[in-house]
Structures are given as structure tokens and as C-alpha cells.
Design goal:
GO terms for molecular function: ATP binding; heptose 7-phosphate kinase activity; heptose-1-phosphate adenylyltransferase activity; phosphotransferase activity, alcohol group as acceptor. By secondary structure, this protein is α/β, with parallel strands linked by helices. It has helices at 2-5, 51-61, 75-86, 128-139, 160-172, 199-206, 213-227, 264-277, 282-296, 307-316, 329-341, 358-368, 381-388, 397-405, 422-428, 464-471; strands at residues 10-15, 17-30, 37-50, 64-72, 90-97, 103-110, 113-120, 147-151, 177-180, 194-195, 232-235, 241-244, 248-251, 346-351, 373-379, 412-416, 432-436, 452-456. The protein is elongated, with a radius of gyration of 27 Å.
Length: 474
């Protein structure tokens, strides 16, 4: 995850752009003119849809995105271009056509229930000369991109001629092409690196009824053959992702709660392309896509995902390594701000935690019970030596931090150099500050920055000092 956070790939997206328009309101009566609901519209929202949702996901992941497409020379087209430019997307490869309507899907939502959708769009396949205009516009810059994504919504931009010419251009420049396909004719994607059809789409394209591992493998191999793919992939909704390069691999889903699957496919193709751009393996990319999709299906409506959200989600599933939970002062500040925005209660405690024992674990478990997120400040080696004497610590700070971060009760560990965590507490401003029961009646550093102080009794007879004496035979 840290490698992905430090990486800003350049990704070029081609596909069907559209506007997702929502009219939100309530319904309390039936029209006297016809047996239909009367919706009292309270607000309107417009979002990027189609390939625009893939672009949105790539942007929020941290990619630098360019887009190639055709839209209508109309007000919807102008609005779409402005929305793309507002998120710093390069639109120089988008062409407007006078005889084309920019796709706009309008949904009427009454009391959180969609009651009607109406579309304005053109679905005719673009002409070969129109495809050539887009191809010519990217010909000289194609080698500067880390990946190319084709987001096909069946609205005519990704014609067979265009797809094949583009894939040929990309292969010539050693650039991987990732495709979110549409329809049943996958021959137009031949030569792509990877496709991301869902189970239903894969069955339609291959004619294979996927009902077990054998039929799944058969469908993956058929896709690989039809499209001459480097890697074959099928997304399996609640069952995760299946891939085939040299063998069948299954990556189970990691979704905790599913509120809405809208846009999950866009998130998968975006995260797969992003991970491969950072030279991740297929196993890493599929795992990353599963996590991203897990975040998105927990939201309402077409949604995007950030690397921070994926990191938090992975931590909540206890699937991340200890390294991901060890933070610097600068990193923990950003983390705390993010959790606070989501209404989470932050708990802080600190200590040396030299030789981890049951007393530490029970103390930290109780500390975590006071809120949602437990942050542990950890004394540096020099700090421990000043407080405990020249023979301490027994374990270096890096090892102590790693062990603490592996505990289920601990969300984040932040090492500090001073003898007290005053500056760290001042920065975090925890909802709850936790200290040991031996601080009863004493001043506790940093209480002025916390909403409350909680004292937790230690487990009788358990301490690092006693453990050391026992080891030494005293």
C-alpha cells in the first residue's frame, strides 16, 4: 500500500462518457391526471457516469488521467467537459460531433427509491474516420502512459475498428490495455492484456454456463483464447475474483456490508489498472481490487475509493501487515482527521511496552473499549533508557512497534522521541486519554487536550521488570 501511495501513474482512458443526473424528492400523492406518483423535487445532483466513473476512481486513487472519447456539441457535453476539467483530467483527446447527443441518464428518486429513469443519448457506432481522429491525437504521446483503459458502455465510442487500432498502437509501445467489456462480441478486444467481465457477461461471451470450478476454468481459458489475453479474469460478485494466467486462482471477496453494487465494476477496472501501473503482480492487483470493491459496495450510489479508505478497510479486516499500522506524526495527523470526519471516537495511550505480556494486552483491550480507534504512543529506545535505565529497552523500538501493531486492539502505533507524549497528544487531541491505575491522584501529561481521562488497573504481578528478573533467575 505504501508503494502505491508514493506512485502517480499516467493512465489514458477511452470509452463512453455520460452524465448521471439525479432528481431527489418525496412523494405524498398520486396525480389526478394519471395513475402516477407526483414527486416534489427538493434537489438535483449531476455526477460523471459511464467511463467518467472509471476516471473518477482513478483520480481518487491518485492517478494522472487523460481521456479520449466523442461527445455531442451540446449543453450536456459542455457540462461534462467542465466536470472533467474540475478534477484535473486532460480532455484534449475528446472530440465533439454536431450530430451526436451527449449521454445523460436522469433518475427520479422519491424517498430513497428510484421511481423513473429517462435517457437522452446517441448510441450509434462512431465512424472509422472519427475513430482515426482520436487515434491520431494520442499517437505521439501514447508512449508516455503507464496503462490504457477501455471502458465500454455500448454507446458506440469503442467500435471494433477503434479498439483494434488502439490495441495495436499500445502493443507497439509495450503498454498494457485493460478492458471493462460490453456485449457478447469480445473479438474487438483481441490483443488486450486483461478483461474484467462479470460472471453473466463472461457466460454470454463464451457460451459456458459457469456453475463450478471446472466450468469457471473453461470460461477463463475460452476468454483467453478469444481475446488473445495475457491474463484472463472474471469478477464473481460476492464470490470475489477469478484469474487465469498459468493456472486458476481465486481471490475471495472481502466486502463486510453491501449497500449498493452500482459502479463496483468501474472501481475494479480502475484499481486493476492502477496496481499494474505500479508493477504489482496479478495476485496483488486482484487483492487490491477486491479491497477497493469492498469499500465501494459499502456506499450508496456510484462511488469512488481512495488509498486511505482501502488501507483503513484492510486494517479493519485484520488483513494488513503490522507495517501499515505504524505511523509517523505527519501520517497520524491525517489519519485522525479522516476518522473524525467519519464520526469515530479516538482513544490514546502510551508506554514503553518493552517485553509484551498479558498485562499489556489486557490493558490495551480495555483502552480500545472506550472508543473506535486506539492509537498507542511508543517511547523511543533513547527515551526508554532515560526512563528505565541503561540496560533497557530489551527490544528495540522497531520490534516493539511491530508487535504492538499486530494486536487486534491496536489500530495505530506512533513512536516518539521525548520522555513524554505531550506533543503527540496535543496534535491528536484524543476523545479519551488512557493511563495505568498507578496514576490515580497524579498529574497526567496531556489531559488538557483530551475530552476525558480513563485509568485502567494493571494485571497483578505482570510487568516487564518482573519478566526480566524471572529470566535472570532472581
Amino acid at each position: 500500500m505504501k508503494i502505491l501511495k508514493n506512485f502517480t501513474p499516467k493512465i489514458l482512458v477511452f470509452g463512453d462518457l455520460m452524465l448521471d443526473h439525479y432528481l431527489w424528492g418525496s412523494c405524498e400523492r398520486i396525480s389526478p391526471e394519471a395513475p402516477v406518483q407526483v414527486v416534489d423535487v427538493a434537489k438535483e445532483t449531476t455526477l460523471l457516469g459511464g467511463a467518467g466513473n472509471v476516471i473518477n476512481n482513478l483520480v481518487t486513487l491518485g492517478a494522472k488521467v487523460s481521456v479520449g472519447s466523442v461527445i455531442g456539441d451540446d449543453e450536456n457535453g459542455k457540462e461534462l467537459l467542465n466536470m472533467l476539467r474540475s478534477i484535473d483530467v486532460d480532455t484534449s483527446n475528446i472530440f465533439t460531433l454536431k450530430n451526436r447527443k451527449t449521454s445523460k441518464k436522469s433518475r427520479i428518486i422519491a424517498s430513497s427509491q428510484q421511481v423513473l429513469r429517462y435517457d437522452k443519448e446517441s448510441k450509434e457506432q462512431i465512424l472509422d474516420e472519427e475513430a482515426d481522429k482520436i487515434l491520431n491525437s494520442v499517437n505521439s504521446t501514447i508512449c508516455s502512459y503507464d496503462a490504457v483503459v477501455l471502458s465500454d458502455y455500448g454507446k458506440g465510442v469503442l467500435s471494433g475498428y477503434f479498439c483494434q487500432k488502439l490495441i495495436e498502437l499500445c502493443k507497439k509501445n509495450s503498454i498494457k490495455v485493460f478492458v471493462d467489456p460490453k456485449g457478447s462480441n469480445y473479438s474487438k478486444y483481441k490483443g488486450a492484456y486483461l478483461l474484467t467481465p462479470n460472471k453473466k457477461e463472461a457466460m454470454l461471451a463464451t457460451g459456458v454456463d459457469i456453475k463450478d470450478k471446472e466450468s469457471l476454468k473453461k470460461a477463463l481459458l475460452k476468454l483467453k483464447d478469444i481475446c488473445d489475453l495475457d491474463i484472463s479474469m472474471i469478477t464473481l460478485s460476492e464470490d470475489g475474483i477469478a484469474t487465469y494466467d498459468n493456472e486458476l486462482k481465486l481471490f475471495p471477496t472481502v466486502a463486510k456490508e453491501v449497500f449498493d453494487v452500482t459502479g463496483a465494476g468501474d472501481t475494479v477496472i480502475a484499481s486493476i489498472a492502477f496496481a499494474f501501473s505500479a508493477n504489482r503482480s496479478i495476485s496483488e492487483a486482484a487483492g487490491f481490487a477486491n479491497l477497493a470493491a469492498g469499500v465501494v459496495v459499502g456506499k450508496i450510489g456510484s462511488a469512488t475509493v481512495t488509498l486511505d479508505e482501502i488501507e483503513e478497510y484492510e486494517a479493519a479486516l485484520h488483513k494488513s501487515t503490522s507495517d501499515a499500522h505504524i505511523k509517523s506524526f505527519e501520517e497520524i495527523k491525517i489519519v485522525v482527521e479522516r476518522y473524525r470526519k467519519n464520526g469515530k471516537k479516538v482513544v490514546f495511550t502510551n508506554g514503553c511496552f518493552d517485553i509484551l505480556h498479558v498485562g499489556h494486552v489486557k490493558y490495551l483491550q480495555e483502552a480500545k473499549s472506550f472508543g473506535d480507534i486506539l492509537i498507542v504512543g511508543l517511547n523511543s529506545d533513547a527515551s526508554v533508557s532515560r526512563l528505565k535505565g541503561p540496560t533497557r529497552p530489551v527490544n528495540i523500538a522497531q520490534d516493539r512497534a511491530y508487535l504492538l501493531a499486530a494486536l487486534e486492539a491496536v489500530d495505530f502505533v506512533v513512536p516518539f522521541e521525548d520522555d513524554t507524549p505531550y506533543e503527540l497528544i496535543k496534535m491528536i487531541q484524543p476523545d479519551t486519554l488512557v493511563k495505568g491505575g498507578d496514576y490515580k491522584g497524579k498529574d497526567v501529561v496531556g489531559t488538557e487536550f483530551a475530552n476525558e481521562l480513563k485509568l485502567v488497573d494493571f494485571v497483578e504481578g505482570k510487568s516487564t521488570t518482573k519478566t526480566i528478573k524471572k529470566i535472570q533467575g532472581e
